[in-house]
Amino acid sequence: MLQFLSSALGWPPILAETIEIIESPEASTLILVSVLLGLVVVYLASKLGGELCVRVNLPPVLGELLGGVLVGTSVLRLLVFPSSGAGAEDVVLLNFLQQISGAPDNWMPTIFATQSEVISVLSEIGVIILLFEIGLESNLDELLKVGTKAAIVAVVGVAAPFAAGTLGLIYLFHIATIPAVFAGAALTATSIGITAKVLSELGRLNSPEGQIIIGAAIIDDILGIIVLAVVSSLAKTGEIRPSNIVILIVSSTAFLVGAIFIGRWLNPFFVNLVSSMQTRGEVLVVALVAAILAGLIAQFVRLEAILGAFAVGLILAETEKGEELKEQVKPLADVLVPIFFVVVGAKTDLSVLNPADPVNRAGLIIAGFLLVVAVLGKVITGFRLVGSSTPLNRLAIGVGMIPRGEVGLVFAGVGASSGILSESLNAGVIVMVIMTTFLAPPLLRLAFRGEPTTAVEPGS
Amino acid sequence: MLQFLSSALGWPPILAETIEIIESPEASTLILVSVLLGLVVVYLASKLGGELCVRVNLPPVLGELLGGVLVGTSVLRLLVFPSSGAGAEDVVLLNFLQQISGAPDNWMPTIFATQSEVISVLSEIGVIILLFEIGLESNLDELLKVGTKAAIVAVVGVAAPFAAGTLGLIYLFHIATIPAVFAGAALTATSIGITAKVLSELGRLNSPEGQIIIGAAIIDDILGIIVLAVVSSLAKTGEIRPSNIVILIVSSTAFLVGAIFIGRWLNPFFVNLVSSMQTRGEVLVVALVAAILAGLIAQFVRLEAILGAFAVGLILAETEKGEELKEQVKPLADVLVPIFFVVVGAKTDLSVLNPADPVNRAGLIIAGFLLVVAVLGKVITGFRLVGSSTPLNRLAIGVGMIPRGEVGLVFAGVGASSGILSESLNAGVIVMVIMTTFLAPPLLRLAFRGEPTTAVEPGS
C-alpha cells in the first residue's frame, strides 16, 4: 500500500536512498564481498554435491541441484533469494558480513537485493553459456535429420500431459476450469538445461536419442512459451486472443529458421573476422558476442535467450573454428554453469513437502497425481515414434523429456502471483516440478544403462 | 534532505519499492537484458580499441581503455555509471530498452543502478582474475630474488612523488597543508593491473625488470593503502592515529608472508584434492575458490582482494597443476578482464580536460605540475638501483611504475567527497591519473624497444 502510494505520488527521492546506498563506495565493496562469498558457497555446494553423486553413480548435475538445496532456502540458508520471502536478516552470511563491517541496518536490504540480483544474473549467464556449449557439441545436420521425430515427441509430450492433467484436475479433483487449465499447462514444457547437461555427462548428446531429446526439448520450450501466453491471457481476460498466438508462432518459427539460414550465411564472415584479429581471446569473445546478440533477439521475439545462444553454438560448430571454440568455452562453462544449477537448487523451497501443513497435505495429493501425469505423459512420447531405421531407446527419449525445472516454476510463479492457482494447487505444481527435476537425472542414467556410450564425456 | 529524513524516521517501506522492482520477474528480465547489452558494448569497445592499437604497435590494453572512453561517460554514453552523476534517462541503451519493453518510468533508476552494479562487480571479478593469471605467470622464486630491488623501487617511488608533490603544491601553488598532503598522497600508488597487463602483452612479465616492477607494484599498493589510511585520518580528525597505521603495516606484512608460507604448505593438499575429484573443471574451480577466499582475507585485513588472488596464483603456479591451470584460466581471463579495462575507460570523465571551464584551467595547470612529478618521481626509481649482477633496463622499471589508474582515482574520490580537495585540485588529480594511465602503456613499449623479448606473449 505504501509502495502504491509513493509511486502514485511520484516521489523520486524514495528511490534515491536505495540507489545511493548501491552507489556508495563502502556499500559497493560490501556488495562485491557478498557476491564473492556467495560464489564460494555456490562452488562448495556444486563440487560437494557433484563429487558425491559421481561416487554413487548419479549424474553430477543432480549433485549440484542437491548441493544448492543444502545451502539454500530450505536447509542452511547460506544462499537465499528475496523471492523466497526472506529478508536480509535471514541470511547467515549477510549477518556475519554486517557484524565484521559495522554496516548500518538500513543498508542490508539493499545489499541483499543487489547481491541476489548479481548472482541471479550470473546464473542466467551460466545457463546461456550452457546452451551455447550444448549447441557447439550438437550437430546441426543430425538435428535436422531427426527433426520430424523430435517434432512428434514434442507435440505428444505437450498435448498428452496437458490434456490428462487438465481433465484429471477437473473430473477427479473438482477444480474449476481456468485453474485446471493453468496447472495442466505447467505440465507441458521440458527444462532443456537439466536434460542436456545429463546427456552431456552421460556421453549421449550425439546419440540419435540425445539429438531427438534436444530437438524435442527446443520445440517444447517454444510450445511451452506459446501455451503460457495462451493460458495467461485466458486467465487475465477470460478469453484467448488468437492474434497474439499467431504472432508468437510466426516469430518463433522465423527465429529458428532464420537463425540457421542467416547463421550459415554469416559463418565465413565470422571465420575471416577472427582470423584477421590479433588480440587475445578473439574467437571466444566474438562468438560470445554473437551468442548474446542472438539471445537478445530471441528475447525480443518473446522466446528465451538460451535458444539464441544454442542456435549460435550449433552454427559456429560447423566452422573451422568450432573445435577451438569448444576447447575455450569449457573453462568458462566450468565456472559459470554450476552457478545456474546451484541457484535452481537454492531457490527450491522444500517446505511445501512438509505434510504437517494442511495446505501441503492437499497439495501433496494433487502433486502425486500431477507427477504421475508429468512422468507418463512424457515417457509415452518415445513410443509414439514408428518406422525408425535404427533401433532407438524409446524409453530414454521419454525419460529425457521429464524434467520441468525452471519453466514449470515460471508457470507456478505466474499462477500464484495472479491468484489463479489456489495455495494447494500451487504447492502441488511446485512439488511436481521439484520431483521431475530431481528424478530425471538418475532415471535417465537408468534408461541408458548397459548401452555403450557413443561419445566421451566432455571435459573428462 | 528527504533521504536523511526518511532514514532518520526509520521507514523500511521506503526501501521496499526499489527492492520490489529488483525482484519482480519483468524487471529481472530487463536487468538481465540491460547487462547483456552492456556486455556487448564492452566487448565491441575492447576488441575495436585493442585491434586498432595492435595495428599501430601500441599495447592492446590501451585500446581497451580508449574503447571504454569512447563508449563511456565522455563520448557515446552507451555505458554510463551513476557515479558520473548520470541518471537512467542519460543512457542511450536504457532509453531504447524502455521504449521496446514499455517499462514504467519509475523502474528505470533501479534498473540503471542494478545494471551498473552488476557490470561493476563483473569488472571487479575481472581484475581479480587478471591478478590471479598474472600470479600464475609470475615466478615466486624470481620474485623473492628481486625482493630487495623491488622494495627499493617501491619506497623511492612512494616517497619521491609524495614529497615533491606536497612541497610543490604548498610552495609553488600556495595550497594549504592538508589538501596538499592529500594530493601528494594521490601520487604514490601504482596501478598494478595496467602495468602487469602491458608487461604480459610485451612478453616481459618474467624478465628481471618485469618481476621487479610487479614486486614493487605490490609493495606500492600496500604502501598506498597505508598512505590513504594516514591522510584520511589526518583529514578527518586533523591528527594521525599511530595505532591504526601499525595495525595496517603488521596485518599486510603478515598477510603476504603468511600467504606464501601457508600456501606452499597447502600446495600438496590442493594437488591431492583436485587429483581425486571426478567432475568437470575441478582444477580451475578449486583454484578460483582459493583465490576468492584469499581475496576475501586480504579485504578483511583492509588490503585489496586482488593481492590475495595474485598470491594464490603465484603459489599454485609451483604445483604440477600449474600449467593446466594457466591454460584453463586464459579463456576466463579473455572474457572477464576486458570488462575491467573498458569500465575504467568508460568511467573516465574527460570533461575535466575542457579548458573552457575556469575550474579546469586552474586544474590543468596543477595537473601539469602533478603529471611531471608523477612521471619523474617514478622514473627515477629504477636508477636508484645499484650493484645488479645483470644489466637492467632501469628506465623501463621506472616507466612501469607510472600508471596510477584506479588507485589514484580512489584518492580523488575520497578527497572530493570529504571536501578536502578543492574543485580545481580534484580536477588536477583526475587529469594526472588519466594521463599517467594512458601514457604508461606506449611509454613502456618504447622503453623496451629494440630488446629481444624473454617470453612469448600469453595467448598468442
Automatic annotation (TrEMBL), chains A, B:
<feature type="transmembrane region" description="Helical">
    <location>
        <begin position="151"/>
        <end position="173"/>
    </location>
</feature>
<dbReference type="InterPro" id="IPR038770">
    <property type="entry name" value="Na+/solute_symporter_sf"/>
</dbReference>
<keyword id="KW-1133">Transmembrane helix</keyword>
<feature type="transmembrane region" description="Helical">
    <location>
        <begin position="26"/>
        <end position="45"/>
    </location>
</feature>
<feature type="transmembrane region" description="Helical">
    <location>
        <begin position="427"/>
        <end position="448"/>
    </location>
</feature>
<keyword id="KW-0739">Sodium transport</keyword>
<keyword id="KW-0915">Sodium</keyword>
<keyword id="KW-0812">Transmembrane</keyword>
<feature type="domain" description="Cation/H+ exchanger transmembrane">
    <location>
        <begin position="52"/>
        <end position="444"/>
    </location>
</feature>
<comment type="similarity">
    <text>Belongs to the monovalent cation:proton antiporter 2 (CPA2) transporter (TC 2.A.37) family.</text>
</comment>
<keyword id="KW-0472">Membrane</keyword>
<keyword id="KW-0406">Ion transport</keyword>
<dbReference type="GO" id="GO:1902600">
    <property type="term" value="P:proton transmembrane transport"/>
</dbReference>
<feature type="transmembrane region" description="Helical">
    <location>
        <begin position="362"/>
        <end position="383"/>
    </location>
</feature>
<protein>
    <submittedName>
        <fullName>Na+/H+ antiporter</fullName>
    </submittedName>
</protein>
<feature type="transmembrane region" description="Helical">
    <location>
        <begin position="118"/>
        <end position="136"/>
    </location>
</feature>
<dbReference type="GO" id="GO:0015297">
    <property type="term" value="F:antiporter activity"/>
</dbReference>
<feature type="transmembrane region" description="Helical">
    <location>
        <begin position="246"/>
        <end position="266"/>
    </location>
</feature>
<dbReference type="GO" id="GO:0016020">
    <property type="term" value="C:membrane"/>
</dbReference>
<dbReference type="Pfam" id="PF00999">
    <property type="entry name" value="Na_H_Exchanger"/>
</dbReference>
<feature type="transmembrane region" description="Helical">
    <location>
        <begin position="286"/>
        <end position="317"/>
    </location>
</feature>
<keyword id="KW-0050">Antiport</keyword>
<feature type="transmembrane region" description="Helical">
    <location>
        <begin position="212"/>
        <end position="234"/>
    </location>
</feature>
<feature type="transmembrane region" description="Helical">
    <location>
        <begin position="395"/>
        <end position="421"/>
    </location>
</feature>
<dbReference type="GO" id="GO:0006814">
    <property type="term" value="P:sodium ion transport"/>
</dbReference>
<dbReference type="InterPro" id="IPR006153">
    <property type="entry name" value="Cation/H_exchanger_TM"/>
</dbReference>
<feature type="transmembrane region" description="Helical">
    <location>
        <begin position="180"/>
        <end position="200"/>
    </location>
</feature>
<keyword id="KW-0813">Transport</keyword>
